[in-house]
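The instructor's notes for this session suggest beginning with a concrete chain rather than abstract definitions. Hand out the sequence below and ask the class to guess, before any prediction is shown, which regions might be ordered.
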Amino acid sequence: MSLIVGRKSVLEALLAEKKLQKVYLQFGQRGKVIDEIKTLAKKQGVLVQEVPNEKFRKLTSVENAQGIAALESSDSMIEPQKLLAYSKAHSQLLIALDMVQDTQNVGAIIRTVACAGADGVVVTKHNSAPINDTVSKISAGGLQAIKVSQVVNLAQFIETAKKEGFFVIGSELNPKAKPYTKADYIGPILLVVGNEEAGIRQLTSKNCDELVYIPMPGKLQSLNVSVATGILLYEALKQRHKQ
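After discussion, reveal the predicted structure:
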């Protein structure tokens, strides 16, 4: 189970009808958003429990939790196969994170994915950042707006995605890679981005249909993974909007 913290994040979770076990409300919290959260929680049969300040601080590990948190059910993640089916019926755009380990980066990526209208994010189970309250807070409601799936074997998931008709594009500084603007992002696309230090793994790279890189004419040759993901996503959006 994970904890969703912050007024916007909890509200987005309820609007998306995420499976919540309970909403914790710090004593004294008032306002329009709080009233809306209470109304939605009641409609969905989610218990809202007011708790003292000290107990609330023990429940949450994030500063500025805005006096509210929600406990999300452990089965809230979608199965990989169901995510592929869902995406094929919607925007046909997914992001896979190959062992991205920083929770702030994962949260920022999820926020960008939600803003760009992509369907969801696939994370690896091992050696990756946990989908926790920090990720939820940084995503600013994004975690509640998209689908998230966890896989043990990313290479195997990529092969399954390809069989389901997805074209897999990996982001990597590789001699075989082409500039990201030269790739075709039309149709079902799975974008793969890698670890903050090592990038995508060799087996992951090998299983991609195509590799792309983001030209960096400056003195540094390394973009933050969340920034790189945003660049790729909005190139996909640009191409799709031209159709």
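Then share the key points. The chain has a mean pLDDT of 90. The CA atoms of residues 7 and 68 lie 6 Å apart.
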